[in-house]
Amino acid sequence: MDEIDVQILKLLKTNARMRVKTISSIVMLSEPSVKNRISKMKESGVIDGFHVDVNYEKLGYMIDFFMKITEIKISFSDFEKRIQQFSDFQEYYSVTGTEKFIIKGHTKDIVSLNEVIMKMERIAEFNTSIVLKTMKMDDL
């Protein structure tokens, strides 16, 4: 990968649907060259897919939260099966440190979050943090 590939990646991160013609004019390469570079990045796994960035607030999910799991009360395989049944959970991380797992979620309101907490108390010990502000960083 060279600097032009990084530039193309940054452009696609801001708008995954950006036209090749627009990208080629910005990076000052021909359209076939840009298409070829994008194809190579897909084939090599650098580009893993093109995703939709969902605005959960517009769908009525007003609270983002992280649930930091310190202990599980059931077997690991049962725990993974159970958390997959929570529609409010979006991402699950196995981590090092004082927590064993971190779950990222979105819920409609405090009442809904409290319901999630009450269900989780049966299967794990945890601490929940409500997100006050989110800021995405450019990771390239």
Give a written overview of the molecule.
By secondary structure, this protein is α+β, with helices and mostly antiparallel strands. The protein folds into two domains: 3-44, Arc Repressor Mutant, subunit A, CATH 1.10.10.10; 56-130, Lrp/AsnC effector binding domain/regulation of amino acid metabolism (RAM) domain (Alpha-Beta Plaits, 2-Layer Sandwich). It has five helices and four strands, in the order αααβαββαβ. One of its GO terms (cellular component) is cytosol. Residues 1-62 form the HTH asnC-type domain. It comes from Staphylococcus intermedius NCTC 11048.
Key terms:
single chain, transcription, alpha+beta, Tscrpt_reg_AsnC/Lrp_C, 38% helix, Tscrpt_reg_AsnC-like, Dimeric_a/b-barrel, 2 domains, Arc Repressor Mutant, subunit A, 140 residues, DNA-binding, 4-stranded antiparallel beta sheet
